[in-house]
Amino acid sequence: MRHRLVGDLMTTAVVSVRRDAVFKDIAEHLMEHDITAVPVVDDQGRPVGVVSDADLLRKQESQADPGGHLTAAHLLPTERAKAHALTAEGLMTSPAVTAQPQWSVVEAARVMAHHHVKRLPVVDDVGRLVGIVSRGDLLRVFLRRDISIQEEITTDVLTQSLALRPGTVTVRVADGRVTLSGTVPQESVIPIAVRLSESVDGVVDVTNHLRAGRENTAGSPGR
Fold this sequence. Notes:
Elements: H1 6-9, E1 17-18, H2 23-33, E2 37-41, E3 47-52, H3 53-61, H4 77-83, H5 88-91, H6 105-115, E4 119-123, E5 129-134, H7 135-139, H8 146-161, E6 169-174, E7 177-184, H9 189-198, E8 205-212
Parallel strand pairs: 1-2, 7-8
Antiparallel strand pairs: 2-3, 4-5, 6-7
C-alpha cells in the first residue's frame, strides 16, 4: 500500500514574508491570496514563525469599543505585545511548528492537533520552506473514489499482503465506508484484514462480516 504523504498534498506556491514585513503589507498578502496565515522566513528561507489573521486582529481586540458598549479585552502580556507590534517579528507565533514532505497524513494531523494549529509550513532536510499543508489538504485523502479504495483493498491488502485467494473475500465501498464479507483461512486473519483496510487512504469506516473457515478439513466428516 502507498499512503499519501504531506509532500503529495501540500501547496508548493507558498506566500511568505520576512521578519521586517509591516502590518499593512501582511494584511494585504492575506487578503490578496485569500489565505488566513503566512509563514515568516529568515534570509535562508527557513520558517521562524507564522502570522495569522488572529494575530493581526489582536490590534482591534485590544482597543475599546468605539460605541462605548464594551471595554477593551483583557489580554495576556504576550498577546498585548502582539497587539502593539508593527512588524512580522513581533506579530508572529514562534517558533514555527513545521512538517516534512515524507510525513504521513496521520503524523501531520497529530502534530496539528497537539499544537492547536490549522496549518504547518513544510521544510526540506536543511529547514528551508518548500510548501505548506493545511487541515483541508489532509482531508483530500477522503475524496478518493470508492472504486479506487476497493481496488487497493482487494489487490494490496487481500491479495498481496494477506495472500488470500481472489474471490474469497468481497469488498464493497460506498462513500468511503468499507464492508468486508467472505471466508478467510484462520480467525487470526480477520483483525489484520480489518486493520489494514482501515489504514487505506480514504477509508471512513470498516464493517466486518468475515468468518473463518476450517483450518484443516482433511479429517472432516462428509455431509
